[in-house]
Amino acid sequence: MGLKSLLAGDLGRYFAALLGSAGSSGAQFLLTLVLLKGLAAEQFGQFAFLWLVAQFIWALGGALFSAPLARIVSQNSAVQDPVAQATTWMQLCFGIASMFGGYALASKAGQDSASSLAYATLVLVGGLRLYGRVASYAHAQQKAVVTSDGLFTICVLALTALLYFVETPDATVAFLILGAGNLIGVIALFRSYGFGLRFPGVGPLLQNYRHVWSRYSSWSLLGVIATETTANAHSYVVTFALGPAAFGPIAASSVLIRPAVVGLNALSEFERARMSRITGSDQHSRLRRARQLFRAAAFTFWVVTAVFTYCVLTYASERMFGPGYARNAVLVGAWLWTALLLIRVLYLPETTEMQSHGAFAELAWPRIWSAPFSICGVILLLQVAQPVWSLAAICLGELISGFLLLGAHRKVSKRFTT
Fold first, then answer.
1. DSSP string spanning 267-310?
2. Would you call 243 helix, strand, or coil by DSSP?
3. Beta carbons of 60 and 206 less than 8 angstroms apart
4. In the chain, N or C terminus with fewer CB closer than 10 Å?
């Protein structure tokens, strides 16, 4: 009975963690569908590339400030811990700097002033919301995350519905919708930031963050850059070498796995904070059970995604993607994205546990070793095949990275649970 009640508690927490992310991923999915129908392949490719860069900027902020937070809070759960507060203020400064960088990037990509400003605002508030989610999980404030996701979902869905009255939706409108959703979502997470505290001053702030940087963030940052190279080398090479129109079909086919990616990211955030709080003599067995449950949930995501992909490609491909996308390119891209998702599912529980232990150096090296395989593979495949086949090189890089990460996890697990 004890096991059943414990399992029920885990499933209940999983359901709560997924409830908000399911809504937010569904809302983003519907918005993407509207853009797929309303934008030409080149325009959608440009939008998708800017969205990808925004996510990379958020990943950089996550590496520098969010990823170490669960470990910091587990060592000192006080809300006013100066080290934890230093990461919060540094995240805010990073967000402001990234906003200016986002504006310059969008302008360079050909967006007008209004679209660039909307994109820059999205980069700022999106990063703040993601940090707030991690901070809330770290302080065991799961209800705040669910509320934030709910507000984001309602806002994006309501504004997306209005797009049906817009004859030609564009990237500017999409950036405004996503920015508004993230801004409203930040409100529910405000308590986790601790902005009510007095600013400690530049000197103490940098001194407190120096510990985070030397122990966690430097390796985490290196890992994120290497991960971006391994996982998204094709996006940058194809866009810069062949243009947004060539990247359009790759981005369009990724839409089918987008809800699963959002859900898995939410589960990873939830599990990272929970695993960091698992201690005691039975730590090893509890962590193993947490990984097993996480893997089962992640694999369920993949199965549902694979079935969904098959149904769309078989019965609704032309209706969803329209005549602007070559059917063969979308077909190849969709199944390669699905294969890539499966590879990531296989090692996601282990990497999440390593993050909870603060083992960022061990996480970085496998990515560093696998990145050249992705880059060289993409460049080679672009010489002999359609751009969409560059995803095969990303699958190879992820396979190599996953194999090395599983080996690294075994060493880290022995060190932290014995």
1. HHHHHHHHHHT--STTHHHHHHHHHHHHHHHHHHHHHHHHHHHH
2. coil
3. no
4. N
H-helix or E-strand spanning residue 234:
helix 218-242
Contact assessment for residue 149 and residue 21, using Cβ atoms and an 8 Å cutoff: yes
Mapping DSSP onto H, E and C, the string for 7-54 reads HHHHHHHHHHHHHHHHHHHHHHHHHHHHHHHHCCHHHHHHHHHHHHHH
Q: Would the pLDDT of 197 be above 70?
A: no
d(CA 248, CA 77): 45
> SS3 for 57?
helix
Q: Which amino acid is at 327?
A: R
Residues 337 and 256: beta-carbon distance below 8 Å: yes
* Residues 6+ positions from 276 with CB-CB distance below 8 Å: 70, 71, 73, 74, 138, 356, 357
pLDDT at position 156 over 80:
yes
- Is residue 71 left, alpha or beta, with left meaning phi > 0 and alpha meaning psi from -120 to 50? alpha
Q: Do 65 and 94 meet the contact criterion of CB atoms below 8 Å apart?
A: yes
Side chain identity at residue 218, one-letter code: S
Q: Quick one: what percent of the chain has pLDDT higher than 70?
A: 88
Give the pTM.
Answer: 0.85
Q: How far apart are CA 220 and CA 222, in angstroms?
A: 5
CA distance 374 to 371: 5
Cα separation, 355 vs 345, in Å, equals 16
| pLDDT surpassing 60 at residue 153 | yes
Rounded CA-CA distance 33/16 in Å is 26
SS3 state at 79: coil
The residue written with tokens 């080149």 in the block is 42
pLDDT of residue 316: 85
Residue found under tokens 């602007």: 324
Which residues 6+ apart lie within 8 Å of 373 measured at CB?
230, 393, 396, 397, 400
**Hunting for tokens 């490609």 — which residue is that?**
313
* Burial of 395 per CB tally in 10 Å (0-12, 13-18, 19+): middle
Q: How many residues does the chain have?
A: 418
Q: What is the DSSP letter of 214?
A: I
Distance CA 69, CA 131 (A): 9
Residue 409 falls in which region: left (phi positive, over 0), alpha (psi -120 to 50) or beta: alpha
How many CB atoms are located within 10 Å of the residue 287 CB?
19
